[in-house]
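The step that takes the researchers longest sounds almost clerical: writing a folded protein down as plain text. Below is the pair of lines this work produces for a single protein:

——
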Amino acid sequence: MSQETSRSPEPQRKADINIKLSEFEIPPMQDILLVGKRAPIGPEAVRRMVDAVSPEQYEIVRLNHDVFEAVVVKKSLLRLLPKEKLLPVVVEEGTRIADEGMVVKAQINITIHISRTVDI
């Protein structure tokens, strides 16, 4: 019996690497910030931050909500989907993971599906 066959096979080791590359954005926030009622930074401080670095790109929407005081949303998203449709979904999902002391950032990808029929 050869020495190679008496050894147990060497375990295979693999690594999966996932890389997400995206454009660097200023301010370093995502598409939406959910600002908790007791968060260390309030909506006005967030407004000053985004206005100083990227003026006119974000809208602050005050909420009457148990957990969040405000939502800061990129205006370009609101051109794709009205805030009356977008924000309830984001707030509902944010409530599942956050509490009043947190500021949660969210990256939103909106895909619009269009199907049209034309006469032939």
Notes: Residues 47 and 82 are 21 Å apart (CA to CA).
